[in-house]
Design a protein that fits this description.
The complex is a heterodimer of chains A (127) and B (497). Chain A contains 5 helices and no strands. Chain A is an all-alpha fold and 127 residues long. Chain A has a single domain (2-126), classed as Helix Hairpins (Orthogonal Bundle). In chain A, helix 2 runs antiparallel to helix 3 and helix 3 (34-56) packs antiparallel against helix 4 (79-110). Chain B has a domain at 287-497. Helices cover 77% and strands 2% of the residues of chain B. Chain B has helices spanning 8-22, 29-57, 80-107, 113-132, 136-155, 160-191, 196-209, 213-230, 240-246, 249-275, 277-282, 285-306, 310-329, 334-364, 382-396, 402-415, 418-447, 462-496, and strands at 61-65, 74-78. In chain B, strand 1 (61-65) and strand 2 form a beta hairpin. In chain B, helix 3 runs antiparallel to helix 10 (249-275). Chain B is globular, with a radius of gyration of 22 Å. Chain B starts with 7 loop residues before the first helix and ends with a helix. The chains are: A mainly alpha (127), B mainly alpha (497). At the A-B interface, helix 2, helix 3, helix 4 and helix 5 of A face helix 5 and helix 6 of B.
Chain lengths: 127, 497
């Protein structure tokens, strides 16, 4: 029991990230409200960034920017996960913007953000 | 000093990216179209040179991007298979654009066409990058770029229906890329690498020590499912018919013919260059592919049979064809993977031919989409009629056409694995019959004269009649007659992966 608790405390970021990923994934899949879908997507992506950032962080070390000419790698945290997070954020921002733009277009036509309702109206129009 | 042809992959990707940036700044849409055609033609030409250089020597080389060496920098890994795929991607993009441009100008509002061309360039760049890259995270970034670009060329028609189908496509694609990303991140956390050869070294070491067996299985599963969603493998392909069927002809041709294949190319590269194909087989990922592929073949065919809208019928048939490819990959023999790639190449030519011909036929009949109402349309443009007929016959698997050879090799590969032989043969047979059931009535309908087929003559479509349809038709026949040579290139490429 003690061991389990210890692991859970040590890996708290990982556990939180996996829970958030699952939450975001399910909601992105199942939500009918488009805005909620977009928020879920952001939760899912953020959980991955949390996971990455926590994996790259090493307790007691500093940000990977050379200070006072110290070149020893043992002083700094791993910079690659932070780089990946930055790239990931760029991707997720662009996808969010695109998704929101599509939602706005549909909202302007049908005055609703419920996807099922929209598709029903779209199909009715097509007939 | 590097040999000159080593620079071709990087130049191809950069040319597409730069032209994508330049296009919105161009004053006229015609100039944008010309630039787009030039760039995709240029990519096809360069890839042909690359193919000519790497195939005879069985060459596989790694090209370092920038000045950071491995394991930190970014790399491209190129061999015969990559060069072949890049050639197909460049050529078919060029032809789809040349053949569909008239419909494109009808479907897309002025002022938005330049952005459409930009997205087309981005799509080609991302396909090339996914094919060439040696870095797992780069492949993720380009997967996302291709998702956005693909959604953008679907939504370019700007009707409520296409916006709706784009949202469905985007949401499902995002689920796929989320799974892919978490797979990449987990793999990085276990191994500490992102370049494929280094990842492979670490994974083999971990497997030998027996550590992290469960996470590695999970990661292989995550990467596979992520890509399967994007390449519309059953049961993840529900978004495909709406998205591909509703888009403008050029978009449908490129999406069905190329984009789905780009992801599969990446998947195979990941399997070969990261996990090694033997490990993937021992993890039973190929079994899942095999079963999903078989069901997809039947499901896609049934849905296509029930569909009357001609482009949606073709889109459903794409789902069945993706099933063929995954069945080949799942056969657990190397010939099966090679046959799957031949199927990819054949389908990359046949499906755009079908989409462009169907688009042209419907253009003649006032953009009529129902296959029943296209009766007699082939008499008004016999080039489109012949293109559609040839494509349909290839789909059914008539000898001397590409589709026959692909099916032949799939069966030959299945023969090598007695455990998977009978289900594969049975499903191939049913699917071929179903193909005939929904393609042949269409072919008969377009050649049956009706009162509309004798009405006024139609406007000419030079791009389609003189460039796209003849080249695609010749390619389909060439693959049927001379496909063994392509098969040889594929097998050499796979051996070097």
């Amino acid at each position: 029991m003690n061991n389990l608790l210890k692991t859970m405390i040590n890996d708290r970021f990982m556990i939180a990230a996996v829970l958030l990923f699952g939450f975001g994934f399910m909601n992105l899949l199942l939500q009918k409200n488009l805005i909620r879908k977009i928020i879920s997507f952001n939760i899912m992506e953020s959980s991955i960034f949390l996971f990455l950032a926590s994996q790259g962080y090493i307790n007691g070390r500093i940000a990977p920017i050379i200070v006072d000419g110290i070149l020893d790698a043992d002083v700094y945290i791993n910079p690659i996960p932070s780089g990946l997070v930055l790239t990931g954020i760029v991707v997720s921002v662009s996808v969010t913007a695109f998704f929101l733009a599509l939602t706005v277009r549909l909202y302007n036509i049908y005055k609703t953000v419920d996807f099922d309702e929209i598709m029903l109206l779209v199909n009715k129009e097509a007939e | 000093m590097l040999p000159l042809h080593y620079n071709i992959p990087a130049i191809s990707i950069l040319a597409c990216l730069i032209s994508g940036i330049v296009i919105p700044l161009l004053p006229s849409e015609r100039a944008a179209l010309r630039l787009n055609l030039t760039v995709s033609g240029f990519v096809a030409f360069l890839s042909a040179i690359l193919l000519y250089k790497v195939v005879p020597n069985n060459e596989y080389f790694v090209y370092t991007m920038g000045s950071f060496p491995a394991p930190w920098g970014n790399e491209l890994a190129v061999g015969p298979l990559e060069a072949l795929m890049a050639f197909v991607f460049g050529l078919v993009t060029f032809l789809s654009l040349a053949g569909g441009v008239q419909t494109l100008f009808h479907d897309i509002l002025p002022g938005k066409r330049n952005f459409f061309f930009t997205m087309l360039n981005m799509l080609l760049a991302s396909l090339l990058a996914m094919t060439y890259t040696n870095d797992l995270f780069t492949s993720y970034v380009f997967i996302e770029i291709s998702t956005l670009a693909a959604c953008a060329i679907v939504v370019a028609r700007d009707t409520p229906k296409t916006i709706g189908s784009t949202i469905r496509y985007l949401a499902l694609s995002l689920l796929g890329s989320g799974l892919f990303l978490i797979g990449v991140v987990l793999l990085y956390c276990i191994t500490g690498h992102l370049l494929m050869p280094h990842l492979q070294m670490q994974i083999l070491r971990l497997i030998a020590t027996g550590k992290y067996a469960m996470p590695i299985t999970l990661i292989a599963g995550l990467l596979f499912v992520g890509i399967a969603i994007k390449s519309a493998l059953f049961p993840f392909g529900t978004w495909l018919p709406m998205a591909h069927g509703g888009a403008t002809t050029t978009s449908s041709a490129i999406l069905s013919g190329l984009v789905l294949k780009g992801y599969i190319m990446l998947l195979v590269k990941i399997f070969y260059r990261i996990f090694t194909i033997d490990l993937i087989r021992s993890l039973h990922v190929t079994d899942v592919m095999y079963v999903c592929g078989l069901i997809g073949m039947i499901y896609g065919s049934i849905e296509a049979y029930r569909e009357e809208h001609i482009k949606r019928m073709l889109a459903h048939s794409s789902m069945a064809q993706i099933g063929y490819i995954f069945m080949g990959l799942g056969l657990d023999v190397n010939l099966g993977i090679a046959a799957a790639f031949l199927q990819i190449v054949v389908h990359a030519f046949v499906k755009p031919l079908l989409f462009l011909s169907a688009g042209r036929l419907s253009e003649i009949y006032n953009h009529e989409k129902s296959s029943y109402r296209l009766r007699g349309s082939a008499h008004k443009d016999w080039v489109a009629g012949i293109g559609f007929t040839l494509g349909s016959l290839s789909m059914v698997g008539i000898p001397l056409l590409g589709g026959f050879l692909a099916k032949y090799y799939l069966i030959e590969a299945a023969m090598q694995n007695p455990y998977k032989l009978w289900p594969a043969l049975f499903t191939l047979m049913i699917s071929a019959v179903m193909n005939a059931l929904y393609y042949i009535p269409g072919v008969i309908a377009i050649w049956t004269r009706s009162e509309l087929s004798t009405a006024n003559p139609v406007e000419h479509n030079i791009g389609f009649t003189w460039i796209a349809a003849p080249v695609l038709s010749i390619a389909v026949v060439f693959l049927g007659v001379n496909g063994t040579y392509v098969m040889e290139i594929i097998q050499r490429g796979l051996a070097l992966l």
